[in-house]
Amino acid sequence: MSSAAQRADQLDLVARLKSSYPETPDAPTPDLMDHEHFAAYMKTVHDVGGEPCAPMKYENKQYEVWEHNTYVICEVLAWRGIWLSEERRRMGNVDVGRAIYLGIPYYARWLLAVARVLVEKHHISLGELSERMIEVQDRYAGGLDGRPIEARPKFEGDGSRVERNQHHVEAVGKGDPQVFAGQAGEPKFRVGDAVIVRELPALFYTRTPEYVRGAKGEIASVAYESPAAEDETWDRPDAKPEWFYVVRFNLAELWYGYTGTSTDTLQTELPERWLKGIE
After folding, report:
1. What is the pTM of this model?
2. Nearest CA-CA partner of 228 in 105, 97, 86, 127
3. Is position 211 annotated as part of the catalytic site?
4. Whether CATH 1.10.357.10 fits 178-277
5. Do the Cβ atoms of 81 and 169 come closer than 8 Å?
6. CA of 140: how far to CAs of 71, 145, 146, in Å?
7. Which position among 106, 140, 245, 258 bears the catalytic label?
8. Domain 16-50+64-146 belongs to what topology?
9. Beta bridge partners of 178
10. Which stretch, 146-155, 212-221, 227-236, has highest mean pLDDT?
11. Domain-by-domain residue ranges, the chain?
């Protein structure tokens, strides 16, 4: 049971969680929203490359037990065909919003993704999950005190009856992205071709970093065939594979105010839809 003061303190804490810019009010009227602010709000939260950030001290911290357990759960869900890796990335890194993405530990987002996929794909109900959370909370009231975490499942299900995603079924024994080989046709670009990264709208999910959009690069290698992340992350069985390329950029041209040598380069992997040739 919580007291009125505890509930008020929690609500005060939540009220301090703001995601709006100070120059605009919450839920601004359309005339107060320009294109730049709209694009900033719509930006996929995992795409943080190039954003200004304060220096962070690196610490070689060992993973905690719950982090190891979370990683294993996610890998098993993929291995058993419950989701795709891109689904996990979207659910854990994008659909949570910027405040949660930046505010909670890395593997906590993965754990949220586990809960979401199990509920959304009807493996458990949200009510069942809530009751089990309370049960575990009561079991370890006062802390673990050195005790290992015990799963204590209610029953062992029949895995043969679990519906698998179509991609998992097709990729068994072949691998990913090998399962898509020969489906994308001839690659549009060759090694050495000059290209520009298209500035497509990036809604909901993408793996194309903002810092290369609009930039000129060169094809370093023709990599493999696969559906683009924008399609694969929604587990679309009809997603058409396309070629992926490793694109090389000159850092002096890519980064404003770059102070390194003129020969420094950066390479990143991009799907064909994001590239256009330079005539």
Report:
1. 0.83
2. 86
3. no
4. no
5. yes
6. 22, 9, 11
7. 106
8. Cyclin A; domain 1 (1.10.472)
9. none
10. 212-221
11. 16-50+64-146, 178-277
